[in-house]
Amino acid sequence: MKKKTIQKLIDRYEDGKTTLREEARLRAYFGRDNLVVPKEWEIYRALFRYETKERGGRRKLPIWSVWTAVAACGALALALTFGHSSEPDNYAVINGHVITNKKVVEKEAEDALMMVQTNDRETFDALGTMTE
């Protein structure tokens, strides 16, 4: 698939507008072995490979865990985006509360990511790059 097509599907996925078929296309694309993706897509590669692995195993991946991972990625993205600014109006919303403390936001995001961490030896290096 072309980069433009994948980016369009990622955007639809983030907006919650993908069909099951479109999500299957994303899983198939990111699930390929030895796939080299742009740095900004590494987190999606890790997410879809994890989901595919769980679906192929003893149980299907519950939708709440996917949304938890997406929410954690969003919270971490907010923390990284707004955390580098010195403006006082930067914040993240966690459980309906406005949080301005960068350390608290990062801790919450890391905790959420740990909830969807795999127990296998397979590592998802893309998840680690988000805190750099």
Explain how this protein is built.
- Strands 1-2 form a two-stranded antiparallel ribbon.
- It contains 6 helices and 2 strands.
- The chain has helices at residues 3-14, 20-30, 42-56, 63-83, 102-115, 125-129, and strands at residues 92-94, 97-99.
- The chain is mainly alpha-helical and 132 residues long.
- Strand 1 and strand 2 (97-99) form a beta hairpin.
Short recap of the structure:
By secondary structure, this protein is mainly alpha-helical. The protein contains 6 helices and 2 strands; from the N terminus they run ααααββαα. 59% of the residues lie in helices and 5% in strands.
Please describe the topology of this protein.
Layout: H1 3-14, H2 20-30, H3 42-56, H4 63-83, E1 92-94, E2 97-99, H5 102-115, H6 125-129
Antiparallel strand pairs: 1-2
Count every helix, treating DSSP H or I runs of 4 or more residues as helices. 6
Principal-axes geometry comes out as globular
- What is the terminal-to-terminal distance? 29 Å
- Portion in strands: under 5%
Unreliable stretches (pLDDT < 50, length at least 5) are none
The main sheet orders its strands as 1-2
**Mean model confidence by pLDDT:** 76
Question: N-to-C SSE series?
Answer: HHHHEEHH
Q: Number of DSSP strands?
A: 2
- Assembly type of the chains comes to single chain
Structural class: mainly alpha
* Proportion of helical residues: 55-70%
Radius of gyration: 15 Å
Largest sheet: 2 strands, antiparallel
